[in-house]
Amino acid sequence: MITKEIEDFKKEWGQTHEEICFNLGYDTEDSDDLLMDDYFFYSYTNQWYPKCSSFYTETEQEIADFLRFS
Question: In this predicted structure, what is the pLDDT of residue 33?
Fold first, then answer.
C-alpha cells in the first residue's frame, strides 16, 4: 500500500473518542464496549475507524484491515 493512501484514509475516516461518541449519541465514559462492535481504535492516531463500511472502496477496506491488525 502507498503511504499517501493510508494517510488520506486516516484523515477521512478517523474520529476522536469525543467526536464518535457525539455522532453516535454515546456517553464518552461508558462507550468503549459499544464502539468495539463496529469500530477499531488505532492508538498511533488516537482515533476510531469503522471496521467495515459500505462506503469504503476495496482499497479503503484493505487499509482498514491493515491498520486494525497491525
Answer: 92
- The range of the structural domain enclosing residue 28 comes to 3-68
46 Cα distance to chain centroid = 10
- Quick one: cell of 1? 500500500
Of 36, 34, 15, residue with least CA distance to 26: 34
Q: Which amino acid is at 62?
A: E
Tally of domains in the chain: 1
C-alpha cell at 33: 464496549
The pTM assigned to this predicted structure is 0.91
Q: Round to whole Å and give the CA distance between 44 and 27.
A: 23
pLDDT value at residue 1: 67
Reading the block at residue 14, the C-alpha cell is 478517523
Q: Which residues of the chain have pLDDT under 50?
A: none
